[in-house]
Amino acid sequence: MEKRYAVVVLSLAALLTACGGSASPDEQMAYLRSMARQGAELHAVDKGRGSAGEQEECAASYEHIYGGPQGHDMPHVENLDEKARLLKEGERLFIESCVNGTPSPVTGWRGPAGPPTPSAAPPAGHQAGRTAS
Question: Nearest CA to 35 among 84, 108, 95?
Fold first, then answer.
């Protein structure tokens, strides 16, 4: 009987651990690509109605579609700062893609343990704290 109980407890612990973790960087990238694709799709729909590519309209559409606490199909991210950053990047990609009509590329995204983004790296010819002469 104790063995059966131990197996059930271990199974539940494994399930809770799997459900409680943050999405992997690959899952986050897939979400961001999806947001860019949806923005481009909205551009095509708006173009068919005679209005497409307006920054304000794209931002308003994003807010209408995704505004609110349950408006996203975003993967689970435990860290609130990372979650806010992921949401903001998804919003930027959606609006940019809606304005341009093509999915914006998702580059430089990293999860909590990933490498720094290109924008965080020093410019070519610079070293930390020094410039090339």
Answer: 95
Q: Where are the beta strands (DSSP E) in the chain?
A: 126-127, 130-131
pTM score, whole prediction = 0.66
Both structure tokens of 98: 């809606």
- Cα 83 to chain centroid distance, Å, stands at 8
Listed in sequence order, the DSSP H helices in 101-127 are none
In terms of C-beta density within 10 A (0-12 exposed, 13-18 middle, 19 or more buried), how is residue 38 classed?
buried
Spatial contact of 101 and 40, defined as CB atoms under 8 Å apart = yes
List pLDDT tens digits, range 18-58: 455 888 999 999 999 999 999 999 998 887 777 777 899 99
